[in-house]
Specification:
Radius of gyration: 13 Å
Shape: globular
Order of helices and strands: HHEEHEEEEE
Helix content: 25-40%
Low-confidence stretches: 105-125
Distance between the termini: 31 Å
Number of helices: 3
Largest sheet: 7 strands, mixed
Number of strands: 7
Strand content: 35-45%
Amino acid sequence: MSTNDLILTYLDIWNERDVAAREALMTSVLTDDSFYSDPDYAGLRGHAELSKAIGKAQQNFGDLSFTLDTVISAHHDRALFTWRLGTVATGYDVVDFTGDLDKGLPVLLGEASRRCGCATPAAAA
């Protein structure tokens, strides 16, 4: 699986509303001990914690979905990319890889990201 494919699947995880389908996607690209952190969640570990946080965050998204904007850099088992949440927000993530599985998803966002829990509003970017 290519870096782009892994990132696209990660975004699909955030877009998936069905819990069972979301967790199946997680199993396909995330290690069991995956780590996630952003301004609202200080260190989620594993599929169950991340899925619960995604479900909670989706309540604020309405019908918006994440799309990949740009893969800025990918090297040494790490990638930095930007994404969009519909037309209202943008942000960036850093992912670490082990083999073909993503082992960590620390999200690096600024203080303004707290407005919707995961994204920097486009107007403030």
